[in-house]
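A.,

Following up on our hallway conversation. Structure tokens first:
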């Protein structure tokens, strides 16, 4: 039987034979975008470490404001480079919490929060109070912070009773706001039904006898908080 001549079939057979014994080389994969991503993450990791060398604690909002992606943040926590101390708060894994750690966390969690009352007494080392909650003052019309899973006691101050007497302190590289000693004493008398009159009297006695504040400042903040008449007999017995 004679096979008809078919040039296209012959070329196909030759092409198939030419592939025998050859390695098929895959097309080159463009890895540049992966390299760029890894480089960016490493840069953000270095930046994160630098920031937490200057301040011991940062919130997630502060971190993203620095241009650091949340994926980098998550990976650093998973790798043990960072520690999540509370919801939305991060420190270096090597950070050792100090005496005022709870105050730092509370200040970061609550916008416009000012350390007050029992927590302010403890901060200024006045009296024997050691509150299990952090007491914070916020403006009267401010939105109530969502910190149900954190031990914070919120009180609302208005006008000058909120804005006056605030001191800025820096602890472990973190700025916190706390009321001054005379303002705290006046606040304790104002909230005597909430924290106890004995606490307010004890604080006033210690401040006057220890000369921690001038009498004029105590009178000023007593008038500001409208408790000067309540404070007067106790002050007169101590001066």
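Then the amino acids I'd put at each of the 239 positions:
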């Amino acid at each position: 039987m004679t096979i008809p001549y078919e040039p296209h079939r012959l070329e196909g057979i030759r092409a198939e034979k030419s592939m025998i014994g050859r390695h098929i080389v895959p097309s080159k994969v463009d890895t540049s975008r992966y390299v760029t991503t890894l480089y960016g993450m490493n840069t953000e990791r270095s930046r994160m470490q630098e920031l937490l060398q200057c301040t011991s604690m940062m919130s997630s909002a502060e971190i993203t404001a620095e241009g650091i992606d949340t994926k980098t943040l998550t990976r650093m926590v998973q790798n043990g480079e960072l520690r999540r101390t509370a919801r939305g708060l991060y420190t270096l894994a090597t950070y050792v919490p100090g005496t005022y750690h709870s105050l730092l966390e509370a200040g970061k969690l609550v916008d416009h929060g000012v350390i007050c009352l029992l927590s302010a007494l403890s901060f200024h080392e006045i009296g024997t109070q050691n509150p299990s909650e952090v007491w914070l003052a916020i403006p009267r019309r401010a939105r109530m912070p969502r910190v149900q899973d954190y031990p914070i006691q919120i009180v609302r101050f208005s006008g000058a009773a909120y804005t006056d007497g605030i001191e800025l302190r820096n602890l472990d590289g973190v700025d916190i706001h706390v009321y001054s000693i005379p303002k705290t004493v006046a606040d304790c008398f104002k909230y005597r039904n909430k924290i106890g009159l004995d606490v307010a009297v004890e604080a006033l006695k210690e401040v006057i006898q220890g000369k921690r504040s001038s009498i004029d400042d105590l009178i000023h903040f007593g008038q500001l908080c409208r408790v000067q008449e309540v404070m007067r007999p106790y002050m007169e017995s101590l001066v």
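The chain has two domains: 54-96, 101-238. Curious whether your intuition agrees with the design.

B.
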